[in-house]
Amino acid sequence: MDAIDHQIISCLVADARASYAEIGNTVGLSAPAVKRRVDKLLDSGVLRGFTAVVDPEALGWGTEAFVEVHFGGNVTPAEIRSSLEPLAEVVAAYTVSGAADAIVHLRAASIHHLETALERLRAVDMVDRTVSTVVLSTLLERPPAPGGEG
Amino acid sequence: MDAIDHQIISCLVADARASYAEIGNTVGLSAPAVKRRVDKLLDSGVLRGFTAVVDPEALGWGTEAFVEVHFGGNVTPAEIRSSLEPLAEVVAAYTVSGAADAIVHLRAASIHHLETALERLRAVDMVDRTVSTVVLSTLLERPPAPGGEG
DNA sequence: GATGAAACTAGGTTGTG
DNA sequence: CACAACCTAGTTTCATC
Prior knowledge:
By secondary structure, the first copy, chain A, is α+β, with helices and mostly antiparallel strands. Chain A is built from five helices and five strands, in the order αααββαββαβ.
């Protein structure tokens, strides 16, 4: 994990289908050298994989919301995870500090779809209360800048 | 944008470096046919591109927070966007309904780094008040399921 | 208009120094 | 890590339905 690895990761984040030769040209390495590093990064788990970036609107997932979920009683993160995993509308979920126990990021096709997703979320065992915040517009969405401070 | 396009998108979301032949094998098409469809999806904007999925911990970005931002006065989404864009720790930002004006997703290297990022966020013009929620653990993070209801 | 097969080109992969 | 050879995949063209 040296500076060149960070550059390679940057290239792949920018375009996961970039050729090794192209990346090598950017970072000053030969194509095979880049491949070996990428293989190592995949093997070590630094790179988890490669995915396509899709326009949610085009797929008919134009409605988003963040939901603070309050659980009743003692619930483990693992239990929360397994209870949320079956809900297709849940694109992300986090346990958090503060008043709520978890924040759930929902993506739905419409307000109506969002409502039914919320109903199913509230029907999940141990869910006590939810506070929904509907997304009006996405201002910014980007991968974390590689090699920040710290 | 028929059912096969959705299948192709699913394949690419699962693995952006999958070969056209492999995708074709899954969706029941030949490699050239898949390529033509992918080109069209890229051209039409349904597919925005391809990116690498990186482990934030491994890159030293292990601390996350969601911040509700309250703005003073009349601020346009475009103004919010351009004021947040320079902050490297901002990985996502949304205008939202409800009490807050925006939700900002921050990723930092440490609690200390998060603190400095919050200071810079609060120093942004027109930012009135912020309410931070620190992420304890990531339960789930996944792309939206293609072809939902709606 | 879109697909499938084949030919050609480019990139991925492995071995050697 | 670079170089070189080999092999696989991407790309284009053309014929077909």
